[in-house]
Design a protein that fits this description.
Radius of gyration: 19 Å
Oligomer: single chain
Bound molecules: iron/sulfur cluster
Largest sheet: 8 strands, mixed
Strand content: 15-25%
Strand order of the largest sheet: 1-2-5-6-7-8-9-10
Order of helices and strands: EEEEHEHEHEHHEHEHEHHHEE
CATH class of the largest domain: Alpha Beta
Structural class: alpha/beta
Helix content: 25-40%
Number of strands: 12
């Protein structure tokens, strides 16, 4: 079973996206209340060499040998990818491979660092997240470490956008009652107006159950209202815009138990969602889940979603 590379995952924003996960579960700079993976067990701002880049590249090459070229090679997963101290080297190696463009999904928190900004310049696309320009709201939503200063993050993202030649698709995660007031939206609007090189904005919300049960998803109307009030001159889409999922990649399929575990590690899912994403029959999925549950590898929550049971020493 792969340790770092997962998918390809069909994504409305990224087409067929082959994921590369560089951090152990669940290592992140933040502990967002809306996180749909799990609570952060290792919160840090310190960049580390969590795994050997050569091992990641080797696994990537082996995976790419078995599949059609994906649309994007996407650094994302069960944590914050810019925490990996070898990200720049990996982006350079991916570029040299020339198989597919690279994309980094980031929570933006390390963009205040010059080294992170210059490494990300090697990518072809980034999807940074921003929820607020207000420090108190930022703290309420993301539970950051005390030494993370929002203004430095905002300044870093602005500087990065000014230098970057790739595509920037900003994600705003909407938490009703926290960052959707007129003052919050006006603050975001003012900040976004000064971001150069922005290609689009995606309004996301907690469509899967978040770690904090008090965070509820925005409704279709709430996201539409947010979109209407944001009034910026870039295309805005929302989590409820339903374009068809992209074509499936051609790949020798991994065994069902591997595919299910890899998916559940990053995305808690219902059986129906697993059927759609993995293209497996409901019977096979049920049978496999039963076996995995007996080995304490997966569990099902009260919300009906299946998750990987986490073992903190494990690398995603
Ligand atoms: S939502 Fe993203 S940034 Fe927030 S804790 Fe989860 S993985 Fe980290």
């Amino acid at each position: 079973m792969n340790k770092f590379v997962f998918g390809p995952v069909p994504s409305r924003r990224l087409g067929q996206s082959l994921g590369i996960d560089l951090t152990p579960v669940k290592t992140c700079t933040l502990d967002c209340r809306y996180c749909q993976l799990s609570a952060t067990t290792h919160q840090t701002l310190e960049r580390q060499m969590f795994c050997d880049p050569a091992e990641v590249i080797e696994e990537l090459r082996l995976t790419l040998d078995e599949i059609d070229p994906p649309d994007w090679l996407t650094f994302s997963g069960a944590g914050e990818p810019t925490l990996h101290a070898g990200l720049g080297r990996l982006l350079a190696e991916v570029k040299a491979m020339g198989v597919a463009p690279s994309c980094v999904i980031t929570n933006s928190t390390l963009l205040g660092r010059e080294d992170v900004r210059s490494e990300l310049l090697l990518s072809d696309r980034i999807l940074p997240t921003l929820t607020t320009v207000n420090e108190a709201t930022f703290t309420r939503i993301h539970r950051p470490p005390v030494d993370l200063i929002l203004n430095e993050v905002l300044d870093g993202l602005r500087k990065f956008c000014g230098m970057y030649k790739g595509i920037v698709d900003l994600e705003i995660f909407v938490c009703p009652g926290l960052n959707d007031t007129p003052i919050e939206i006006a603050g975001l609007q003012g900040y976004i107006a000064n971001l150069s090189n922005l290609a689009s904005i995606y309004l996301n919300t907690a469509v899967r159950p978040p770690v904090d049960g008090e965070i509820r998803p925005a409704s279709v109307d709430e996201l539409e209202s947010f979109k209407e009030h944001l009034r910026v001159f870039v295309p805005i889409s929302t989590a409820f815009d339903h374009s068809p999922l992209p074509r499936k990649g051609v790949r020798k399929p991994p065994p069902a138990h591997e595919a299910i575990q890899a998916l559940l590690l990053r995305h808690p899912c219902s059986i129906g969602q697993m059927e759609r994403v993995l293209n497996l029959s409901g019977d096979l999925i049920l049978e496999t889940l039963k076996n995995l549950k007996a080995q304490n590898l997966v569990e099902v929550g009260h919300d009906g979603l299946w998750r990987r049971q986490l073992n903190n020493s494990e690398h995603a």
